[in-house]
Amino acid sequence: MQTNLLWHNSWIYMKTVIPLRLGEALPIMLNKEQTFYVKQSWDGKCFKPLSPDTFSKLKEANKKSGGSTNSLTKSPLHPLDIICSPKNETERVVRSVTKKKNVEMEIESKHSASKSSLSKERHSRRVANGMKTPTARKKLQLNSPTKSPRGKLSGSDVLELLGDDCDAMSEPSAAKRKVKFTGILGSPPKMSCSNDEPKSMFDSAEHEQRLSDTIRLSPYSKVRDSSEEENLHTKEDTICLTGHQKLGGQSPLVTPRSHRRCAQKTSARIAEQISLLNTLESDKKEDFLSSSGSSYSSSEEEENEVLRTPKRNSKSSRIFSTPKSSRKSSVHTPAKTPKKTPLPATPKTPRNATPEIPKRSHAARKPASILEEARLRLHVSAIPESLPCREEEFQDIYNFVESKLIDGTGGCMYISGVPGTGKTATVHEVIRCLQQAAENDELPSFQFIEINGMKLTDPHQAYVPILELLTGQKVTATHAAALLAKLFSTPGPKRKTTVLIVDELDLLWTRKQNVMYNLFDWPTQKHSKLIILAIANTMDLPERIMMNRVASRLGLTRMSFQPYTYKQLQQIISSRLSNMKAFEEDAIQLVSRKVAALSGDARRCLDICRRATEICEFASQKNTSGIVRMAHITEAIDEMFSSPYINAIRSASLHEQIFLKAILAEFRRAGVEEATVQQVYHQHVALCRIEGMQSPTVSEIMAVCSRLGACRLLLVESSNKYLHMRVRLNISQDDVMYALKD
Amino acid sequence: MSKRKSKESSSANGECISQVQRILRERFCHHHATGKPFGIEHQYRHLLELLKRTTVHGESNSALIIGPRGSGKTMLLNHVLKELMEIKQVRENLLEVHLNGLLQTNDKVALKEITRQLHLENVVGDKVFGSFAENLAFLLEALRKGDRTSSCPVLFILDEFDLFVHHKNQTLLYNLFDVSQSAQTPVTVIGLTCRQDILELLEKRVKSRFSHRQIYLMNSFDFKQYIKIFKEQLSLPAEFLDESFAQKWNNNVQHLSEDKTVQDMLQNLFHYSKDLRSLHLLLMLALSNVTVHHPLITASDLHEASKQYRMDSKANIVHGLSVLEICLIIAMKHLNDVYEGEPFNFQMVYNEFQKFMQRKAHCMYNFEKPVVMKAFEHLLQLELVKPIERPSVRAQREYLLMKLLLDNNQIMDALQAYPNCPTDVKQWATSSLSWL
């Protein structure tokens, strides 16, 4: 009862409660403050119209609370909440709660109903903070301004509470479940707000509808399943939960469009708020600066993220907050995220101060024509919103990492595939989704590290970036190895799981293989919590180059990326060119078939397309047709893959050609595909005699020979052997014959 | 009077001549581009567009310019860069990094050079650069920081690209191409190489990241164009200080290009090599004959130059040998004929020489063995003879196996030109059995 009173008081001080008479229409929510509309009273059993004295009392209270909220908004202590408040308004479910003077609220969340003293305490605190139902709690967790009266509770307290809530959520209890049912689905207050509910329900439905439309590589369903298992909630609960999360928090999968719309709704208010909050500017400066390039919507988004996951730093969370921004900064995101964690402005080591390529003085020109736009999108560096044709691999890797994350264990996975099959891109996409899920608290948070064998000068250097990204220390390779071994073998109190991507694994090979051994040994240790995704080109790498003890530690979790088939390549191009009429359908098919037959390398495919747009552009300056046709593609392919040797021979000088003929003649005479220059020289002189030409001197022949050798039409020995230098053809004799025949 | 006049004109001429020498020598030696490149308009456009897109749109690219030596790869690139630099927006927006495979022989040196040319070393301060690994991390970090729209594009020009391929793991190439294929600082990597098989040398991962743009330069002009180049290279520019002299000079060049013997000579050169550098070399030789008293290049000058140019280097050495040394070479030639190119040693040569002495020659050429040995060693020093294995301490010098580095044709040609060659030696050279 005491808690109820407390709650009541805080409620009154907090909110502007506006009682409404029956039948009175609900005013449109445009106010800045939190407003509760009350229509009916609840006496524990049924709803009644409000009594007149309630009106008068609440009015009186309103006056008070109006003052208090104003002071609250100006307080610099609570920047996050205040900035978020308008957002909250747009999203929140408007609920009218009936009250009497002696309110006896029976509505209880499943958490508050928990019998343990701990949860009771929690409950009381929560109630003191004016939270009532799980819905309300959820709101707070996301972006609620619901605060303790007069701002006595600082943000950290709220966070603590959130943490408690999470804990409580994972406690399985039958009672909880039961109460949950009544609390959320069957409780009268829920019904009481039914006149407002449909709208919000519709909103959420709309949200979800869009989501499901746009999901490609979404781990969404899986996440739900796993959280179901883990939290031991009933199915309904989980759905309810996820629903709320979806509604409230910007789900990772919100399309840019929908995101923009809801952002638009709030951006106007945000502007108002910000003008109110001049005092807060200084605190928030960093965030604003970092997001100055993006619109209000994204900056606001950031703050939401910050509130939701306050322990993580704002940078890493921002990267994935909007599809737009993630796309912009996507390439360095995965590698950078953990790196940036310390203050981004200050360098990690004073010695290697942040190097930077100078800024350009003129802005990069925007693509002007369709072809230029297409070329931009077809560039390998352009990150598509989704990775088509790798859904299965994505899902497998995602499941693997996710399960390890949830279990809090370590493990290795070996991923192989020829170059240009999207291995690294897929793995990065997985990490991106996992990070997003971790932000939404669907997964335990983790640390992400990437090393690339090709970007190291020596295999042993691999330890250095790992340690640097984990702890920020910068030491030598051997020392780093020792520190890492210690780090992974001893149990850390609050160690996060580490996901380590080892790209180009084969380059980490050493004679003793201790780098590979260590990398794959750490995950097997009990406390390491290390997940390794090793990427290389050959499928049988573990069997071929690894010692048994290393291969055994790597385990049998393998995945191989098959080269793209022509249909997949076609899909990749089409998805990049989404509804742009730059390519003929046949042209796309031609290039996909060609590349699929050659290598299945997506990079090659994109490069050919890009070159074809250039050729098309070049051609279309004469006759204006801005679409890439088969002819352009064919030309591009010819340019890239035709053997240069035939042309090189044809454009060689006469004596060079005769020399090649002489070589063929000498080969035929000797029956061996190798000859000394002296032998060829004799043939050459003979040929010249037949042609009636002046026979060359040995010096000239040597010059001709070395020229052909420099082009690698011939393979020649070092020239200090002079006449006894041996020559061989670098191309087949048939090719030479073909080139010289005319 | 008339003498004085001629002196005046000769001094005026002298100034003109020295001007001509200066202009043309600069043209031939520094490979100063004269006029527009011809026959490569397509390649020119391709490269120009490519670099323009890099600078203007910030698009990353990679390309290789492939062609035999002297086909104008660097010339093409320089021309394109020159034209690009005329655009203000480009001039202020482009960072260039020039690397040469012959200078940057490993990735460590190359990285330092890149850092220096990008002026990133000032970030490091006066600190001496750290380890190779740090350098690489440093540079990659710098390149990763940028993005397409805001960073200044960087143009990497790798001369002698094929030599970079031999660096360990091709780390530098991998990283450069990787940057060019990801959304980092816009870079364009241009490689210049004469190897046609360059793509086969790239490691598969590096190859996949390379965009496969290849610009081929093939010297695919015919003889008519070659004559035109000859005229262009030799004629004086319109802004020459003495107009009448320039007129005279150019008329002379026109005449030369129509002369039959000159055309034959050029044709011959053209048949040997389409490399324009060889033409430059020839013209340079002819140009050095031009003096005040001989103010215009004549056909005979060119002919002389061509003769000099085509001279066989080894045969030239033979001209300067003593009779004894010639005799030894002839002995070796006979040994080669008898044993079908099998290696020989000094003793065999000496025996052969002795045979000739005893049968044919009179005491006139009778030399002591040590003297013959000395002559043999002189041949060894001139590299007319080459030991087939390294000389070891234990093996006696007389019995070291050798090979002759001269062809029979060369020996016979040299003997024809050898002054005062004794007749019996000549006879002996034509046939080892001549004494019978």
From TrEMBL, chain A:
MF GO annotations: ATP binding; ATP hydrolysis activity; DNA replication origin binding; metal ion binding
Region Disordered, annotated ranges: 104-156, 180-266, 286-366
Keyword Cell inner membrane part of the UniProt annotation: no
Subunit structure: ORC is composed of six subunits.
SMART domains to which the protein is assigned, alphabetical: AAA (SM00382), Cdc6_C (SM01074)
UniProt source species: Apteryx mantelli
UniProt feature, compositional bias: Basic and acidic residues: 196-213, 222-238
Transmembrane segments: none
A Pfam family of this chain: WHD_Cdc6
Protein name listed in UniProt: Origin recognition complex subunit 1
Entry function: Component of the origin recognition complex (ORC) that binds origins of replication. DNA-binding is ATP-dependent, however specific DNA sequences that define origins of replication have not been identified so far. ORC is required to assemble the pre-replication complex necessary to initiate DNA replication.
Example GO biological process: DNA replication initiation
Span of domain Cdc6 C-terminal: 660-740
Family per record: Belongs to the ORC1 family. Belongs to the CDC6/cdc18 family.
Residues annotated as domain AAA+ ATPase: 409-560
Localization in the cell: Nucleus
A Gene Ontology term for the protein's cellular component: nuclear origin of replication recognition complex
Main location: nucleus
Composition bias, Low complexity: 333-350
Keywords of the record: ATP-binding, DNA replication, DNA-binding, Metal-binding, Nucleotide-binding, Nucleus
SUPFAM superfamilies: P-loop containing nucleoside triphosphate hydrolases, Winged helix' DNA-binding domain
InterPro entries membership: AAA+_ATPase, ATPase_AAA_core, Cdc6_C, Cdc6_ORC1-like_ATPase_lid, ORC1/CDC6, P-loop_NTPase, WH-like_DNA-bd_sf, WH_DNA-bd_sf
Keyword Zinc annotated: no
Automatic annotation (TrEMBL), chain B:
Keyword Cell cycle: no
Chain segments annotated as transmembrane: none
Pfam families: AAA (PF00004), ORC4_C (PF14629)
Broad class of where this protein is predominantly found: nucleus
Domain AAA+ ATPase: 59-219
Gene3D superfamilies hit by this protein: P-loop containing nucleotide triphosphate hydrolases
Keywords in alphabetical order: DNA replication, DNA-binding, Nucleus
InterPro entries from the UniProt entry: AAA+_ATPase, ATPase_AAA_core, ORC4, ORC4_C, P-loop_NTPase
Subcellular localization, as worded in the UniProt entry: Nucleus
Job description of the protein: Component of the origin recognition complex (ORC) that binds origins of replication.
Family assignment from sequence similarity: Belongs to the ORC4 family.
Subunit structure: Component of ORC, a complex composed of at least 6 subunits: ORC1, ORC2, ORC3, ORC4, ORC5 and ORC6. ORC is regulated in a cell-cycle dependent manner. It is sequentially assembled at the exit from anaphase of mitosis and disassembled as cells enter S phase. Interacts with DBF4. Interacts with POLQ.
Name of the protein in question: Origin recognition complex subunit 4
Record gene name: ORC4
